[in-house]
Amino acid sequence: MSGHQSAAPARVITGRRTAWVVALVPLVLAILAILLVPEGEHEASATDTLPRGADSTLAVELSERLPDDEAQVALVLWTSEGELRGTETDALTEQAAALQPAGERPQGPPLVVADDRTAALAVVPVVSSSATDNIDRVEQLRERLREDAPDGLEVQVTGPAAIQADIGQVFDGADLRLLLATAAVVAVLLIVTYRSPVLWLVPLVVVAVADRLSAIVATNVLEATGLAWDESTVGILSVLVFGAGTDYALLLISRYRDELKTTESRHEAMASALARTTEAVCSSAITVVLGLLTLLLSAIPTTRGLGVACAVGVLVAATFALVVLPAALVLFGRWVFWPRVPRVGDPVLVESRSVWRRVGDAVARRPRTYVAGTVVALAVLAAGTTSITTGLEPADQFLQEPEAITAGERLAESFPAGTTDPVQVVTRADPQEVLEAVEGLEATTSARITTRGDDVARIDVVPDARPGSDRAAEVVADVRAAVSGFDDTHVGGGDAEAVDEADHAASDRLLILPLILLLVLGALVLLLRSVLAPVLLVATVVATYAAAMGASWWLFRTVFDFAAMDSGVPLLAFLFLVALGVDYNIFLVTRAREEAAEHGTRTGMLRALTATGGVITSAGIVLAAVFAVLGVLPLVVLAQLGAIIFVGVLLDTLVVRTVLVPALALTLGERFWWPRRVVGG
């Protein structure tokens, strides 16, 4: 959209008689929706985070035909510093029996005392109707056990039910904590950027309203379309809306400030700023939305839901930034910028001798050297990607180990390591024949039929391997090979699910990553109406991604001591870094094209860097900081995602957009726009 095409709508949005309507009506309607319309509801399913069609997913679906399929297993572990005495084991036997469900519900096996007699174990089915109910029941079980524990014995609860409950507790109140932390970070950075006690409030309020409205619209869209989402979806959505919305606001306000230095009427100044900003923001938003929608091709239901939710959020953020924010700002006088109030006749940013102009001049003197230097630096950082390992073990998924993990580690000292999460064979074949097929497999300690239904049975195979380890994955492969001849027989459990998730994550990357690149490239070709510039810009964001992955992996291994990277992180990091990273190239290059039409490519790029350097750097720092806020949640996967995007956005903002892209344009000159010809003065 050109400036002439967008001028008329811009004047409606910013007009003296219409601005207050455009600002207040959407805000009032949005606030009413926030107060009156509840977020969408989703009844969580055990297959929400599992790849569709995977063997472990089919196992879960088939297990729903078992009696009390809503029951999960908790493992109660009693430990002693010395050997358990006979009176203690008698007391624990009674206590374990009292924990078993009454009636016809399936019961766990009797109390098992370890060979070293320092620990005892009981299996307790936990029947829950929802994730919240599961948290409550596991917590009640823990409280009851601590009250009744014999003196001198420590009691802990682990197993699938306890692990799920501890993960659920991570997100208890997490949305509010994440929202407050994100809003605080944005507020501080806006105050630092504008150095005004008033101005920062306007974009912050607009973006905050957009964020809450996005959560309501997105979750209701997901509910209406039947897409799954989990506890992290709204948190990531909030971070993205705050980051993208603030970026768009910074770009608009920077242009508005410059227009106020040449135009007496603030309404005309905002109309001009909005007309000149709309193309860049719309191009950026559309590119990000298309990139996010590629997640609909993912095999993981919650990943598909995340893509749609975030796409809705970006659309809402862009709409508020281009409609509500300019109308709201223009209602205030120039005093809103106090104490740095722009006046007609003040030097505009593009003409200043700012630090960004000095950086541009330095790059202009030796552009080829800067191209070579930055490419080598990015390649060195990217070298770390060759050593990345993916797939987190259960014990490595939390920044702070909950009871379920510490209890599982202690259990492995006295019992077979796979006791906490056995391999589950769910079958409609003769269970006795299936049992005989898996009994005695290498690296397993036991196998037994645990549950029977009318035509379905489940067999638990206990590996003598730590859950999440390579050996546990080998046991899954061995079990699958052993039962491959039985019809309607599937292998599940935590290790089987981890194997399937890793396989499908690799497939997702092979499918979705090239598509994201093609969409971004196509959007840039349409925006710039050239070929070479879009190819170079896409190459720079891919190089940024590789460098961020390599640098982050080094941090994970040497600073944070993460054993591996979550298998889903590379895809999400690529999406956010490429789709959001190209934003800053769009902001820079659209301004460079505008300036080049009058001043030529060389001068136009330097003027564009001068004009956009400060605002893009501020936007990049805001975006990096809000994604880093994901670290307030004690899940390693979110901390890793936030860290990679933090590193990548800073690299893109401070190195690629500031040095590499201008150096490429200055090296190529008019050829940068090939085959388009930019006529300069």
Task: Describe the protein in words.
It is a single chain. Residues 1-5 have low confidence and may be disordered. The chain has 21 helices and eight strands. It folds into three domains: 1-37 and 196-346, Multidrug efflux transporter AcrB transmembrane fold (Up-down Bundle), CATH 1.20.1640; 69-170, Alpha-Beta Plaits (2-Layer Sandwich); 352-402 and 501-681, Up-down Bundle (Multidrug efflux transporter AcrB transmembrane fold). 63% of the residues lie in helices and 7% in strands. β6 and β7 (457-463) form a beta hairpin. The protein is of the alpha+beta class.
Keywords:
681 residues; alpha+beta; Multidrug efflux transporter AcrB transmembrane fold; Alpha-Beta Plaits; 4-stranded antiparallel sheet; 21 helices; 8 strands; 63% helix
Short description:
The protein has 681 residues and is an alpha+beta fold. It contains 21 helices and 8 strands.
Strand order of the biggest β-sheet: 2-3-1-4
Secondary-structure-based class equals alpha+beta
Output the CATH homologous superfamily of the largest domain: Multidrug efflux transporter AcrB transmembrane domain
Number of helices: 21
Mean pLDDT over the full residue set:
87
User: N-to-C SSE series?
Assistant: HHHEHEEHEHHHHHHHHHEHEEHEHHHHH
State the helical fraction. Answer: 55-70%
The number of E-state strands comes to 8
**End-to-end distance:** 23 Å
Largest sheet entry: 4 strands, antiparallel
Please identify, by name, the CATH architecture of the largest domain: Up-down Bundle
Percentage beta strand = 5-15%
Return residue spans where pLDDT drops below 50 for at least 5 consecutive residues.
1-5
Return the CATH class of the largest domain.
Answer: Mainly Alpha
| Large-scale geometry | elongated
